[in-house]
Design goal:
Blueprint (H helix, E strand, L loop, with lengths): L2 H25 L3 E4 L5 E5 L5 E6 L8 H35 L9
Helix pairs in contact: 1-2
Length: about 110
């Protein structure tokens, strides 16, 4: 094989590895937020969908509107954390796909 073909194959393999790593990492993204007093914990997946909600017994003594605000606050914070994780993974993937190693592009 020629040196150009070897470089092309290496570049494609590097991109495939970067994509596989990104997909694996995206599957593991979780955002989690615990209220300062520990009364509410929310967990979301990479898409921001709520996957877990834990309420301490202490929430039973609070007004429902306060508890709902606290749940929404925790869920939003957890979603923001998951979004930040996802953005870091996508940035890493983009960097790998456009690096000078891939496709023999000059740097």
């Amino acid at each position: 094989m020629s040196a150009e073909m070897d470089a092309l194959v290496r570049g494609v393999n590097d991109q495939l590895e970067a994509l596989e790593a990104a997909l694996r990492d995206l599957g593991g993204v979780r955002g989690r937020c615990v209220a300062e007093d520990g009364s509410v914990t929310a967990e979301v997946d990479a898409h921001g969908a709520l996957t877990g909600l834990w309420l301490a017994e202490s929430v039973t003594s609070r007004p429902p509107a306060e508890v709902s605000r606290l749940i929404l606050w925790a869920a939003r914070r957890a979603a923001a954390e998951a979004t930040a994780q996802r953005a870091r993974i996508i940035t890493r993937l983009n960097d790998a796909l456009i690096s000078k190693k891939c496709w023999g592009r000059p740097g």
